[in-house]
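Batch manifest, entry 17 of 40.
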Amino acid sequence: MSLLSVRNLVIDYAKTRALDGADLEVAQGETVGLVGESGSGKSTLGSAVGRLLSRAAQRTDGEVVVAGEPVFDLPPDRLRHLRKRHLGFVFQDPIASLDPTMRVGAQLRLVLGRGGDVGFHLARVRLDDPRVTRAYPHQLSGGMAQRVAIAMAMATSPELLVADEPTAALDSQVREEVSNMVFSLAADAGTSILWLSHDLPAVARRCDRVAVMYGGRVVESGPAREVLGRPAHPYTAALAGASPAAAAHGARLEPVPGRPPVLTGPAPGCAFAPRCPFAVERCEHERPEPVKVRDQHVLCHRAEELAERGVHGEPVVHPEVTA
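Output type: structure tokens
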């Protein structure tokens, strides 16, 4: 049984549809990268895992199951228990995710309870200066604040860590250190990771599997080497082809043509059809169902045909990145 199972999840914000039947599985101990352009639904899906959506969000269909518990059907006390025992979250803005009115040590003690060793957990994220314990979040740098957020998220050794662009606001050197820290702590604790990111090379290096989102659905999923090295969905190929890691030195990057959709209801066909060079008439009015191509599950009417023809060409992420 999967640790996390998202099935046909539909989330609306007033007249805007953020998730349009999303499906996702994460197994125990697995690391899954969730990628896609801004507006694809990544953050909404990540927040839905812990029922952390804003009040404006409305679930109109589907379910989220974590450790056998139906997240959207739980009463408040059981939901709190699920979050505390099974889930950890690290968000993009570390300062905003911490309580500005409480010192760092006090916030960690709330997570750990009586007898918890605050110093030990801060030392695990390389914050062994006692002044950090007494500091307020605004007195820390962005990298230090994110390490505190990671220490809090991992303090109870959750079964699943949801990390939503946790290094996006950090400089390149700190970004690598923080990423190493998250994956190292998770590996030691046996924690699964759902890693939301725009950084395809980092996802390729660190994650077992990749799920690609577009128009509120997961349009391709499978082993990272296959999805990013031999994509089966035209959108995945276009997305990875626009990554700097995919281009030879001095080559011009090719952006994904057009703009992502803004849905007001269910997409009548394939949401990528207006931007897809391989679209045919049925793509405009018939929603694609999952098909298996090699080791990937793909939402594309022509996936098998295109894979046989090899129209996506050479690997779009360099082999050393996916090794």
